[in-house]
Amino acid sequence: MRQPLIGRRVTGASHLDWPNMLPNATSEELARLLPGRRVVDVQRRGKLLLLRFADGSALALHRKMSGNLLLQPAGTLPRPHTHLVLHFEGGLELHFVDPRKFGRVYFFPTASELAAFLEARLGPEPLDDLTEEELARLLRGRQRRVKPLLLDQRVLAGVGNLYADEALWLAGVHPARAASSLSSAEARRLALALRQVLREGIERRGTSFSSYVDAAGNRGDNQAHLRVYGRAGQACLRCGATIVRILIAQRGSWICPRCQPLEPSSASGARP
DNA sequence: CCACGATCCTGCTAGC
DNA sequence: TGCTAGCAGGATCGTG
Question: Is the pTM value of this prediction over 0.90?
Answer without folding.
Answer: yes
